[in-house]
Amino acid sequence: MKNAVVITGIGLVSPIKPFMGVDIFWDALCSGEDAIKRAAPPVLDMDRKWLMAGIDMSGSQAGLQSGCPEDKLQSLAEEALNRAMMDANLEGNLTIGLTIGTVLGNILLKEKRLIRNKGGNITGETEMESLSYINSFLKAKYGLKGPGISVSTACASGTDAIGIASRKIIAGRSDIMIAGGVDVLSDFAVIGFHSLQALTEKKVQPFDKNRSGLALGEGAAFIVLEAEEKAVKRGARIYGKVLGYASRADAHHLTGPHREGRGLTDAINQAMFQANLKPHEIDYINAHGTGTVYNDMMETKAIKASFGDVAYNIPISSTKSMLGHSIGAAGVIEAICCLLSIKTKVIHPTINFEERDPECDLDYVPNKARQEEVKIAMSLSAGFGGQNSAIIFGKS
Amino acid sequence: MNPVAVTGMVKINSKDMDSIISNLNEHIREMRFIHDLEKLAIVGVGLLLSDADIHFPVGSTDISLYIGIDNAIEGIKDEYFNSVITYGILGSSPLLFPFTSPNALTARISIAFDIRGESITIPVKYSCDDVIEYAIECITGRYSRMAIAGGIMSSGLRNKGLRAEFSLLEDMKRAKERVACVYQHIDAMDNPNNRE
After folding, report:
1. Hey, are the CB atoms on A248 and B117 less than 8 Å from each other?
2. Would an 8 Å CB–CB cutoff place A168 in contact with chain B?
């Protein structure tokens, strides 16, 4: 007998209405609020500015008590984790595990150390710079005794963290798993993506003919997953169910996606197989939708390859037009958007959509949210290294 | 329920790399590497596939990758950002930037051997036990048919190079079908998904 996995708590901190709760975040996202602004990276003193979506920490409860920017990762993660745990009303003696997706970890701490040591010895990283640190820290602080797994699969990290957590529950490793993602804006990421010419100088326009790149963002998001039987027994509120999940490699290129979306097609097909679903049963797709030329083209091709003609009838939207790309957090934020679409029967828009691209000819919910019943939603993630992940959520 | 079979094992140290690579097939010998970690990962998996008698390029989703890495990756990040500090934003290498993310090593393995199954990179502290455990769960849960599981570690090896350890895991029934040499079998943990 297979354990069904349900979601009983959500918490996030994103660049839109960061500390005002999920409902206010969702209303703002559905009204098309744009958090992307021109700004300088946080640490290095540079004249140059890029488009990015940052979070002002002044409203944080977990808080940046010290005012040091290198505490931001920890503060964001704690804030979102607290909110998810409170939302799930976790009480009693439960075995809880934690999976966290992060690509850069506490990169601001590293930047500060290297700047201090300019021209000198570059060894001597601290424990806090380690990618596994945030998981160990939160597990110890919150007394989470279940499995602890850090995941670093580029921009698919958050989605994979949820997938791994759901499999841990299915395997009977933990009563409850909390899955999340976190990354912060950093000089490191901005300069790296700039050097790869992936950042836009205009605006983020996923699937638009004139799309010119992505904008980086930041954030943290967590969801609480548990076996359905136990969640029902403790009277937990249920947002939805994990129906299927798969990861697939492009095996093609270190930074560019496979042009035909081979890996993403495989991931979608495998997740659909696991969920035992037919194409017409998917009501909504939350796309990776970065706004880069190649991602959006390959994503469209992958959706068409998996869904055939049905692809034209499925609403697809991208949060990154409003929130930027929060790297490790993106997959979890987008999973939460799927769950909120199921709950509220509203699909958020893809903003800045101006001109249709003949190669991206699906329904991208342009510029205006849509009222529509969503019983089953899929979230897609893709990343450097040919990472591809698909996860499917259904109404409980 | 079938146990999980270990049908390939490899353990190498970066200090032995040159002698090992000269014995590998042409496909690997001719590769160009950006970083020693990448070389170690690819040579390690090349040896593993040979040991498990699996031909490459694989060209299918049958094999998945579950790769752990400790702080060995942090040195690449340091090198990258120090270039930015010293030479400005154009002083950083776009070739090196992707390697600042640990999944670049898993990606290079997938590209080098055309392995298209699951691709999961797990940052670890001291050991890859969690990685192996998850890979076993993926096989017993039937999410993956075969798995390359293991990792690359620098911990406790200061001035002794880096070490890579990989195992090839597969369902015992499948291993028997392809007449693989089984080093060890692991009784799959009690996975409710697999109860007959």
Report:
1. yes
2. yes
